[in-house]
Amino acid sequence: MMLRKLLLALLVVFVVIVPSKSQIVGFRIAANSNMFINELGTSDVPHPDALAATPALNTQKFTPQPTLGVEGELLFQVSPMSHFGIELEYSKLKGYNDNPPVYNYYLTPYYTDNFQPGGEYVTDPVAFNTTLFNVAVNWKYFFFKTSPLKPFVKLTGVVAFVGTDYTLKENTDPDIFESDVLYARGTSNTDQEKWPAFHLGGGVGFDYQLNKQWSIQVDGTATVTNSGIINGVPNFTYERVDDTDFLRYNNRSSLTVQISAGLVYYIEVGDSPRGSQGRTDPSLPFYRKK
């Protein structure tokens, strides 16, 4: 339902932006690769039981793995040197940790009731596999208006729908773990829907004009996502109040980076005067020479 409303809103934006007069509109299709960097915000305070069971050589750092996603974007000019884009994107993030700590999450009823009824602590290697379906709006400002190679800076705002599987990295003894799934959200391993989250970011890139209608566009973007399950593990922090131990959910954000590369195809839409051969403003990355 939320996704349907977002797409309807983007359709309204499209109708408002596209004028009745002639305008160049771009269609971009690209491949992307994403990497989880770190979580931001207040770190979890480990529960004493989790701390006691944590191996001496543990690390909370995940090693990223290569991923491949796809994205499509509709582009509109908003000024002589900038344009606005509406983007749909599917992206993946993967990683593993061969020496994980015992997370507070393992002490919560959600873990013991839904994934490991035995409540076993996990010190074996673990991995995460996260997918994001993103609906984004982008703004790009271009430099060197007369050059075929135009660097640009980029700002982006995104609504993401996050799904993740946090699992044991390798097969283990079924007598200890009933399943290799330690946490899941928005995947086939759970009934819970994807986690909606908002994220903001920025980046740099370049557009290289091949001919009148085609260009290559490459960019790198860093974003902060308002979700603490990008690395698969829900965050809980330990508190002791009135001689009672509590584990409170800790809402953290995630820093990720992305590289994308693809092709842009430009067409002229709207009414144009007879004999028009394209726009004469050379400041656009998709300027057509007469």
Written description of the protein model:
The protein has about 290 residues and is mainly β. It has a single domain, classed as Porin (Beta Barrel). It is built from three helices and twelve strands, in the order H-E-H-E-E-E-H-E-E-E-E-E-E-E-E. The chain has helices spanning about 1-15, 50-55, 110-115; strands at about 25-40, 65, 70-80, 80-95, 125-140, 150-170, 180-185, 195-210, 215-225, 235-240, 245-250, 255-270. The strands form two sheets. Strands 1-3-4-5-6-8-9-12 form an eight-stranded antiparallel β-barrel. The protein has a two-stranded antiparallel ribbon with strand order 10-11. A hairpin with a 4-residue loop joins strand 8 (about 195-210) and strand 9. Mean pLDDT is about 85; it is low at about 275-280.
Present the secondary structure layout.
Layout: H1 2-17, E1 23-40, H2 48-53, E2 63-65, E3 69-79, E4 82-97, H3 109-114, E5 126-142, E6 149-168, E7 181-185, E8 195-209, E9 214-225, E10 236-241, E11 244-249, E12 253-269
Antiparallel strand pairs: 1-3, 1-12, 2-4, 3-4, 4-5, 5-6, 6-7, 6-8, 8-9, 9-12, 10-11
Organism: Draconibacterium aestuarii
Protein name: Outer membrane protein beta-barrel domain-containing protein
InterPro entries: OMP/PagP_B-barrel
